[in-house]
Amino acid sequence: MSSIKDVARLAGVSYTTVSHVINGTRKVSAAARERVLQAVADCGYVPSQVARSLRGAATRVLGILVPDVSDPFCAEITLGAERVAAQAGYSVVLANTHPGQSTPNQPIENLLGRRIDGLLVVAGLFDHGVLVQRLDHYLKQRSLPMVFIDHDPAHLPADALMSDAEGVARAAVQHLLDLGHTRIACISGPAGMPVSEARVRGWRQALGAAGIEPGRDWLVKGDFGVVSGFAAAQRLLGAKGCRPTGVFACNDLMAMGVLRAAAQLGVSVPERCSVVGVDGIVLGEYVYPALTTMGESLAELGDRAAQALLQRLGERGDSGRRPSQRLMREPVLIRRESTGPCPAV
């Protein structure tokens, strides 16, 4: 396998000059740059497609930033986006922020260092303010088309595919209210995450509109993971006295944890407790009982996000920057087996 020194020897330059050409870190004379690019291609030091793209400052690579690709929400979106990218001749580089790790912003730095042509950001457990600040600094050096899912891009010139998180939650809770439930608990996502907090507000709004004051113990914090949903449901359904007959989980994974906890505690769903989630992940259709959710096709969401990013890429050469666009999504109630009429007292 060829090395950077092989490229330098063939081009008749120092290996630091080769590095500057490849990474764009310093100006190099046109003649030297041309020799380096030719040597890169001849040696196969990098794929010839990348070598050619260096001439036009394009790599035909899109970056996708997600909290954790093992989460079905992220995985399904990524697959949809990757399919569209491949059809357009782009490769995809994926970065996980890994919630809870000691250096949560390092994946962002690593991704931006890959010379990507565009960036798709999926709602995640990272410091959104730091991300916006870092991207703002990056944009001062070069153009980077961007699309966010469930994140507000603030002042950045980016598109955002947003849903009315409060409205989605209200609709989910209203479904339980329509079935006669009045004791409806909520399992939230992480504190400080805008989507989670908005869904909790929607839960409160739906109960308030029905004249119901939530009980002190009806709200239990989760972290959007299945284990936290299981633990929260053990508290809610294992409590003595007046336990809820309905549970609104702020995402499908936590709702699946509720189903497992209910089965372990001998609480039949939906006969004694109805459960509804949010997102519409494919797995929800195949758990038992099948999960009722406020959802949408996440693969199609990834498809739509990638199409929006490709459109921004096509406009990158235009003078000026197109202002941000908010592209609204409309999840719908997907009624399955996990919700039913409130049990008789």
Q: Could you explain how this protein is built, in words?
A:
This protein is α/β, with parallel strands linked by helices and 345 residues long. It folds into 3 domains: 4-55, 434 Repressor (Amino-terminal Domain) (Orthogonal Bundle), CATH 1.10.260; 61-163 and 298-330, Rossmann fold (3-Layer(aba) Sandwich); 165-295, Response regulator (Rossmann fold, 3-Layer(aba) Sandwich), CATH 3.40.50.2300. 43% of the residues lie in helices and 16% in strands. The protein starts with a helix and ends in an 11-residue tail after the last strand.
Which residues sit in consecutive blocks of at least 5 with pLDDT less than 50? 46-56
Classify the secondary structure makeup into a structural class. alpha/beta
Could you give the order of the helices and strands?
Answer: HHHHEHEHEHEEHEHEHEHEEHEE
Beta-strand portion reads: 15-25%
Helix fraction, binned, reads: 40-55%
Averaged pLDDT:
86
Overall morphology:
elongated
Strand order of the largest sheet: 2-1-3-4-5-11
Tally of distinct domains:
3
The CATH superfamily of the largest domain is known as: Response regulator
Brief sketch in words of this structure:
The chain is elongated and about 85 Å long. The chain contains 12 helices and 12 strands. The chain has 345 residues and is of the alpha/beta class.
Entry keywords:
Rossmann fold; 434 Repressor (Amino-terminal Domain); 6-stranded mixed sheet; 345 residues; alpha/beta
